Amino acid sequence: MTGTTPVSGREQSRRTVFVKAAGVAAVGAAGASVLADAAPARAAALATTVQQGALAPAVVSLSDAATIAVDASLGNDFRVTIAGNRTVATPSNPTDGQKITFQVTQGSGGSYTLSWGGGFEFSAGLPQPTLSTSAGMTDLLGFIYNTAKGKWLLAAFVGGFSSPPVQTQPPGTYRLFATTNGPASPVSYSGPFITGVVFGVTEGGCWLDGYWWWVCATGQSTSPQKFALWQTYDGQNGTVVPGSVVTSASLTAGQWNFVPLSTPLPLGIGATYVASTGFTGSFPDTNGQYGSGGQFSAGIVKGPLTAYSDATGTLPSPFNSAQGVFSVAGTDPTATMPVYGSNACNFWMDVQVDTKPPAGTSYRLWPGFPAIPGHLDSDTAGYTLATEFQLSQSCALDNIWFYSASGATVLPTRCAIWNVGTQSVVAGTDNTSPTWSGSAGGGWVACAYSGVTLPAGDYKVAVFYGGGSQWYQATVGYWSTGAGASGITAGPVTAPGTSAATSPGQSTYNAGSWTYPVSYAASGNGENFWVDVEVTPS
Amino acid sequence: MRLTKALPARLAAAALAAAALTGCSAAAAGPDSGGQLPAVRETTAATGSAASSAPLAPSVTPRVVAAVRPAAARFYATLSAGNYATSWHLLAPAVRKQIPLRVWVRVHEACPTATAARTRVIKAVTVFGNAAIVTTVIPGSTAKTQVSEDVFNYVSGQWGYSPEDLRIYEHGSVAADVAAAKAAALCAGWKSF
Questions:
Q1: Domains of chain B (ranges plus CATH)?
Q2: If residue A454 lies in a helix (H) or strand (E), which one and from where to where?
C-alpha cells in the first residue's frame, strides 16, 4: 500500500494506515494496539492518517499454564508454547474493535489441545480450529473484539508454521531444551549481563560436553561470548570448575548455539552447578517458567541431568536458591557467579551432559566437585576413614583423593586401598608418608600412584591421621538419604549406598589407629568422609 | 568417634531475589526518608528502557513498572545524603533479613562511595519478571562518565534494592566488612553496594 495524505484532523483518529507496514498494528487511543485494515488506499483516503515508517505491536509472551491468562491491554501479538492441554482465558481489558493474534506453538511432547474461554466465539464459517499435532509447529489465530457481543470473534486461522529447526544432540546425551526453542525477541537492554541455569546430575559417570545458548532471531548479540561452570556450595558463592571455561565463536541468531568444551568435563553427583555466560545487551527471557505454576515448576529432569526449579517450585536446589539466575556485575562469567532471580524467569541457558565416557578417561566418585558444602569438623581425634568401592574390571590405581576442608592445618599421614574380603591392605598401595598434591585446607588433594593394578573386586579406600588437629569434613546422611543413597557408579567404579554396602555400612572408620575400618557411625547415618579413589580401566 | 557432624550447608534464607511475590498492583512508597536529599535527576531512557515486550510477573502491572524510577531515585538520594538508616529500609526484604540495619549503617558510614553528595542520573530502567535493572550515570569531574547497573526487586508491593554481593556484610564484624569493602575497591568507588 502506498501512502495517502491526511485530509481531516477530525477524522484522523478513525483510521491509520502505514506506508511501509500495511496491515500491521497501530497504536490506538486507549494504548492498546489496533490492527489497521489493508483496504484499498483510495477508499480509505478520507479517513486515513498516513504515518511514515513501520510500527510493530508489542509481542507479549504468555506464561504457559493450565489456564493461560491474557491481558489485552499489553499488546496485540500474543505468543505461547504449550506443554500440555490448555485453556486460553478470555482476554481482560478489551477494546472494541481490537484485533489480536495468538501464535501457539506445540511444546515438547505435543500434540496438545487448546480450549477457549467463554469470551471467545467461533462461527459456522470458521469453527474452533484443530491445532497442529507436532512439537515445534505453530498455529496462528486472529480475533476481533466486539463490544456489543462482548465476544472475541475468530477472524482468521492459519495452521502449520514450522519453527526454526531444533538442533539435535548425539544419542546418550542430555540437555534441558532439546525440543524447545527460546523466544523470538529478547528483553531490550544495553548493559552488562551474566545469566545462568542451576543444575546437577543424579548419577556418577556424567560429563559436560558443552553449553547451549539461545540467540533470538533479532535484537540479541551474536558476538563471541564466554561460558563457564560454577559449583556453588551455599547458593550464593561458588568456585569455577577447572576446565569449564570456553569462549564461543560468533553466534547465529534465531537458533540454539552449541559451544563445546575442548574436553568433556566430568561432573560430580550431588554437586550444584551454575552454567553461566556473559555478554552485553539484550537477553532472552520467558517469565515465570521455573516457579510455582510455571511450565518447569518441578524442574527439568532429562536422564541424569536435572535443572532445579526456582525456590517457589517443587524441586528447588539444595540451597533453595533462585532459578534462572542473572547478574549485572559485568560480562565475565568467570568473575561473578549469577545469583539474582527474577520471578523464576527462564533465560534460555542450557547444557549438554553426556554419559558416554571419553576415550581413555579415568574415573572417580566426585570429579568436578571442587568445593564440598559444609565445613571442617570440630573433631580433632585420629581415625582411619574409608569409602567402600567395587571395581567391575581390572583398573590401574591413579590417585587416592581426600577433601581437606577450609581451616584444616593437617593432612592425612597414611593412605591405602584395603581389600574388603581379606581385610588387608592391597600390596603396593600402603603409603606411610604420602605426598599430597595440595596443602591442608585447600580442598581436594591427591596422592598419586603408578604401577598398581586393582583386579575387579570389593575395596575400601582409606586415609589415616593420628589426631591433634581438625582435619576432615563429614556430611551426615550422605549414603543413606543423600546423594549417595542409591550408590554412585562411574564407569567401572561403584560406591554402594549404605543399604547395599558391606556390613556395617558405608562409610566406615576406625578410631585411633591405622586398622581396617569396620566401625559405622550410626548417628551419622551413612555420613560421607569424602575419601575418593581414581582409577583407569586396564 | 565423636559424632557431632555438620549438616551440609543449607541457607535458611532463600536467595535474595527468589522471594515470592506477595503484594500486588499498588507500588507502595518506602518509608519516609526525612531531611533534605540531594537532587536525583531522572531522564528519559536513551536506551534500554522498560521494554513493553519484556515478560513480567503477573503482579508487575504498568503502574508497578512506572514505580521503579521513583523507588530507585529515592534509594540513591538517601545514599547520596548519607541517610543510611533510611536507605536500609529501601532494600529488598530478603536483603534486610541478611544485613542488619546496624551493620548496613556502620559499614556505609565507614565506607562511603564516590557518589556521596553527587547527583546520580537514571538513564534506563529494564523491567522483566519481578526485577528491574536500573542504569545510572554519575556526571562529574572525572573524564569518563561513570555508568552503573543496579538491581531492584519487586516484593510485597515495593521495589527494593538488591546488592550484588552480600558477602561484604557477612564477615562477622563491621571492621572486617569495611576491610572487605575497601579490598573490593567499593569505598570511594562508583558502584552501589
A1: 45-183 (3.10.450)
A2: strand A453-454
* Cα→Cα distances A40→A8, A23, A27, B99, Å: 18, 11, 20, 65
Chain B hits for A318, Cβ within 8 Å: 8, 10
- What is the least distance, in Å, from the CA of B46 to any CA of chain A? 10
Judge if A135 and A249 occupy the same domain: no
Q: Is residue A393 located within the same domain as residue A494? A: yes
Residue A349 lies in a domain: yes
The residue among B151, B184, B190, B133 whose CA lies nearest residue B15 is: B151
| Triad B189, B50, A321: Cα angle to 5° | 65
DSSP E strands in B21-162: the ranges are 121-128, 131-138, 146-155, 158-162
For the stretch A280-313, pLDDT in tens is 999 999 999 999 999 999 999 999 999 999 999 9
**Distance (Å, whole) CA A24 – CA A19:** 10
Question: Could you list the pLDDT tens digit for every one of the 193 residues in chain B?
Answer: 443 333 232 223 333 333 333 222 222 222 222 233 333 333 333 333 333 346 788 888 889 999 999 999 999 999 889 999 999 999 999 999 999 999 999 999 998 877 766 778 999 999 999 999 999 988 765 656 688 899 999 999 999 999 988 888 988 899 999 998 888 888 877 778 8
CB contact under 8 A, A476 and B14: no
Q: Alpha-carbon distance B22 to B137, whole Å? A: 32
Over range A38-56, report the average pLDDT: 57
Question: pTM score, two decimals?
Answer: 0.72
- φ/ψ of A35, rounded to 5, equals -70, 135
Q: Is B3 in contact with A521 (CB distance < 8 Å)? A: yes
pLDDT score, position B162: 95
Residue A44 and residue A74 in one domain: no
Domain that includes residue A408, residue range? 363-537
Which domain-ending residue is among A287, A322, A354?
A354
**Residue A454 touches partner B, C-beta closer than 8 Å:** no
For chain A, what is the domain count?
A: 4
Chain A to chain B Cβ contacts (< 8 Å): 183
- Within this chain, do residues A456 and A508 fall inside the same structural domain, yes or no? yes
Q: Which of A63, A374, A509 sits opposite B8 (nearest CB)?
A: A374
pLDDT at B140: 67
* Among candidate residues A123, A110, A112, A182, the one with its CA nearest the CA of residue A157: A123
Query: Based on the domain organization, do A370 and A421 belong to the same domain?
Result: yes
Contact B18 A236 (CB under 8 A): no
- Residue A209 counted as domain residue: yes
Query: Are both A250 and A390 inside the same structural domain?
Result: no
Contact A527 B6 (CB under 8 A): no
Higher-scoring residue by pLDDT: B165, A501: A501
d(CA A37, CA A483): 61
Q: Cβ of A377 under 8 Å from any chain B Cβ?
A: yes
Residue A330 lies in a domain: yes
Same domain, A227 and A273: yes
Please answer yes or no on whether B17 and A233 come within 8 Å at the CB atom: no
CATH number at residue A341: 2.60.120
Distance CA A195, CA A226 (A): 11
Residue A156 forms part of a structural domain: yes
A431 interfacial to chain B (CB closer than 8 Å): no
Query: Chain A: residue nearest B51 by CA?
Result: A188
| Cell numbers linked to A156 | 482468521
In this complex, the residue of A187, A191, A234 whose CB is nearest that of residue B11 is: A234
**Rounded to whole angstroms, how far apart are CA atoms A107 and A105?**
6
Tell me: do A321 and A219 sit in the same domain: yes
- Answer whether A374 touches B (CB < 8 Å): yes
Provide DSSP, A493-538: EEE--GGGSSTT-SSEEEESSSS---B--GGGTS-B--EEEEEEE-
